[in-house]
Write a structure and sequence with these properties.
The chain is elongated and about 75 Å long. The chain is 31% helix and 21% strand. It folds into two domains: 3-80, Immunoglobulin-like (Sandwich), CATH 2.60.40.790; 95-282, P-loop containing nucleotide triphosphate hydrolases (Rossmann fold, 3-Layer(aba) Sandwich). The two termini are 43 Å apart. The chain has nine helices and twelve strands. By secondary structure, the chain is of the alpha/beta class. Helix 3 packs across helix 8. The chain has helices at 95-100, 102-106, 118-132, 139-147, 151-158, 160-174, 220-229, 252-269, 273-282; strands spanning 3-7, 11-17, 29-33, 38-42, 49-54, 67-71, 74-80, 111-115, 135-138, 180-183, 205-211, 240-244. It has a five-stranded parallel sheet. A four-stranded antiparallel sheet has the order 1-2-7-6, with no helix packed on it. Strands 3-4-5 form a three-stranded antiparallel sheet, with no helix packed on it.
Length: 313
């Protein structure tokens, strides 16, 4: 089904070619839409033909203001955007549309992947970097390059505290890098697994890739409580959480898409977030996230004066 998509200032328009179908009146067409989904079907005798079905749409629309009409051999559907300033690259949310629309969302803000598995962090980081045109970085690879030894042998020789301290130093050195996707070490031996090592992780948008046994969202709060009870408190500092019911490297791109979708929702809920991350970096990643203190603030001071930036801004 050939289609054309156009994004306007406050609305989006979808055109579908229907010339080859035996459509005699508008009553032969069914359009079912809500704020986040769309289904268009032709009600032909026998069984309906689905022309397009998307869930979710790239962004929210005002479904009650949707209009449609037939223009020669085309079905034209017009949607009012809930956010007129947000430009849509396509009608549906997909890997292609998310990566195409990333520049207006991320504004160069780096992404940090944390979680229990170094392998998962690395695989997903590579997919994200490829799709976004970002630089892929792996703290494991950087550590092994600089020390000429594997992280596993380092752990055996010097222990997890030494590895976490070294990774923290690596994160500090790359904290000013824009347009990078950083895969961190998995597990409690990494900096991300320790609440006191997040100073430079706050420089980017952090995604917790969390392996889960739960299959529904209602169980998420209980699982989060269990994670805290088990001592996995540091990962709860992440900006968003992507749950993985299992892992197969072949699905790394799907996980990367879920990461971008979650980050899109996060930034749309707080459009100042990329700017606040940039300010945090410019002031030296002092650990005062999310309540950024004025220039010259001493982390050891007890001054609680802020610049008016918080997660609720």
């Amino acid at each position: 089904m050939c289609s054309e998509f156009c994004d306007g200032s406050s609305e989006v328009e979808l055109r579908l070619n229907i010339g080859g179908l035996d459509i005699r009146s508008s009553r032969d067409i069914s359009i079912d839409t809500n704020d986040t989904s769309l289904a268009i079907r032709v009600l032909l005798p026998g069984s309906p033909i689905t022309l397009i079905e998307t869930n979710p749409l790239f962004d929210r629309v005002k479904s009650s203001e949707t209009i449609w009409y037939i223009d020669d051999d085309q079905l034209v559907v017009n949607f009012k955007k809930q956010d007129p300033d947000f430009k849509w690259p396509d009608i549906m949310e997909s890997w292609e549309s998310l990566t195409a629309g990333s520049s207006q969302l991320l504004q160069g803000t780096p992404i940090y992947l944390v979680g229990d598995s170094t392998e998962i962090n690395q695989k997903v980081a590579q997919e994200l970097a490829t799709g976004l045109g970002y630089t892929p970085l792996s703290t494991k690879e950087l550590l092994e390059l600089y020390t000429k030894q594997t992280v596993d042998s380092w752990l055996l020789a010097e222990g997890s505290d030494s590895v976490a301290e070294a990774e923290s130093a690596v994160l500090e050195s790359i904290s000013s890098h824009a347009r990078a996707v950083v895969a961190t070490l998995g597990g409690q031996h990494g900096a991300a697994g320790r609440a006191d090592k997040w100073q430079h992780l706050y420089a980017g948008l952090t995604v917790w890739l969390s392996k889960t046994e739960e299959l529904d969202e209602d169980s998420a709060p209980q699982e989060t409580y269990k994670n805290i009870k088990d001592g996995i408190i540091s990962y709860t500092n992440a900006d968003v959480v992507v749950k993985l019911p299992g892992w197969d490297p072949a699905y790394a791109k799907n996980v990367a898409q879920a990461c971008l979708s979650a980050l899109k929702q996060l930034i749309q809920s707080d459009k100042k977030l990329p700017g606040k991350k940039s300010l945090y970096i410019r002031l030296g990643c002092r650990g005062d996230w999310p309540n950024i203190k004025p220039p010259g603030w001493d982390p050891s001071s007890e001054d609680n004066t802020t610049l008016g930036h918080s997660n609720d801004a």
